[in-house]
Amino acid sequence: MSVTVRVPAKVNVQLAVGAARADGFHDLANVFLAVGLHDEITATPAEELRITCEGPDAHQVPLDRTNLAARAALALAGRHGLDPAVHLHIAKDIPVAGGMAGGSADGAGALLACDALWGTNASRAELLDICAELGSDVPFSLVGGAALGTGRGERLTALEVGGAFHWVFATADGGLSTPAVYREFDRLAEGGGIPEPVASPDLLDALAKGDPDALAATVVNDLQPAALSLYPSLADTLAAGRAAGALAALVSGSGPTTAFLTRDAESAERVAADLRSSGTCRTARTASAPAAGATVL
Ligand code: C5P
Q1: Contacts of 255 (CB under 8 A, 6+ apart)
Q2: pLDDT, tens digit only, all 297 positions of the chain
Q3: Residue (of 111, 154, 152, 113) closest to 132 by Cα position
Q4: What does the alpha-carbon distance between residue 140 and residue 165 come to, in Å, rounded to a whole number?
Q5: Ligand 1, closest atom to CA 182?
Q6: Ligand 1 pocket by C-beta < 6 Å: which residues?
Q7: How far is ligand 1, taken at its centre, from the CA of residue 136, in Å?
Q8: What does residue 236 show for φ and ψ, rounded to 5 degrees?
Q9: Residues 296, 4: contact at Cβ < 8 Å?
């Protein structure tokens, strides 16, 4: 018997970052949008906890207990006094270390898969609690759709989305470490006052209306200058996407994946094709949003 769970990637349409807190994290106003690129996590009973991974970037995924999927299984088993004897297989399609919450997706997916496999029947509140322990973005991977994340991003309020948004994601060679990007944010912000992060009413309104032009006019990522500072050639990718007709171009989360909002599915295909031939990225893929959260198949 085995259980497979499908989990979406995310893009941050607004990532407002406050000053570093005493615990090293940053308070955020983080507007998450789940997008239709997915990982699938399959849990099967085994002699002991084991992780395997398949997909073009599988060699970059750690297979030890630092993997969020392993940590999710250990956390659930620990709380319920169970032996975490499970094989977790990750079919990976979300870019690794790309700023699209691929690791968080695997954590949320493994948690839901183990809960179903072991019959622990954890409540939604307990699952969200474990997700928040695993990482700031993991609760959103569980719920999907669109949500405002406050605190370090883990406290979620669901948001209304009035229509489909069509995106292109350009992957880059190599990854960026999220802590390194936040450190660079701190370095760049040194000396200046950092305002309290607040969600933009205009952006929430654009999401609720399903209006791509209004969303394009309001998307903002406070981590973008830090990501560009560590990975300067991303500016060329952003420029290539804008030249190809994207309504908006931004770094996805902490990067280095770049995200391009387009008017419809057709223009997304055109922008993706132009980006692929631009020589400024590894490849470009289209995906629409919002996507559902972690789902047992
Ligand atoms: O929560 P998560 O483990 O995904 O965070 C990874 C790293 O990103 C943290 O160790 C921290 O350096 C940085 N971070 C932050 N503020 C947040 C979220 C993450 O500084 N709100």
Answers
A1: 98, 99, 172, 176, 181, 223, 224, 227, 230, 231, 234
A2: 999 999 999 999 999 999 999 999 999 999 999 999 999 999 999 999 999 999 999 999 999 999 999 999 999 999 999 999 999 999 999 999 899 999 999 999 999 999 999 999 999 999 999 999 999 999 999 999 999 999 999 999 999 999 999 999 999 998 999 999 999 999 999 988 899 999 999 999 999 999 999 999 999 999 999 999 999 999 999 999 999 999 999 999 999 999 999 999 999 999 999 999 999 999 999 999 999 999 999
A3: 154
A4: 18
A5: 20
A6: 24-26, 28, 135-137, 152-153, 178-179, 182
A7: 6
A8: -65, -40
A9: yes
Q: Which atom of ligand 1 lies nearest, measured to the CA of 137? A: 4
CA distances from 257 to 150, 260, 283 (A): 23, 10, 10
Alpha carbon separation from 67 to 50, 57, 90, 106, 272 (Å, rounded): 11, 15, 11, 8, 31
Tell me, rounded to whole angstroms, the distance of Cα 158 from its chain centroid.
Answer: 16
Residue closest to 164 by CA, chosen among 281, 44, 292, 73:
292
Kindly give the number of the ligand 1 atom that is closest to the alpha carbon of 136.
1
What is the distance in A from the centroid of ligand 1 to the CA of 64? 20
Decide if 10 is catalytic. yes
Peptide bond into 256 cis (omega under 30): yes
83 is catalytic: no
* pTM exceeds 0.85: yes
